[in-house]
Design goal:
single chain, about 35% helix, five-stranded mixed sheet
Length: about 100
Amino acid sequence: MHVITRKRLNEFAQKHRNTRVSLEHWYRLMKRSSFRSFAELRTVFPHADQVGKLTVFNIGGNKARLISAIHYNRQKVYIRAVLTHDEYSKSKWRK
């Protein structure tokens, strides 16, 4: 899948160094995968959740949440936000 944009991952990892390895792992898995549906995605990422039209990934065992819009038909993943657990809990990202 084509991940747009890796810049958000790098920026978050710069601020929160304890997430760098987990974010890199997520990126590598997404790049080499070709998911056709959310059900297929859950075989690799069993803790991913759908929230409306967005897919939320748990990164590094509750260290961060990665919010994305996935277009399975075009094989594109748009990273909407990478948030700490506290930022995610405030729900401002849903607007």
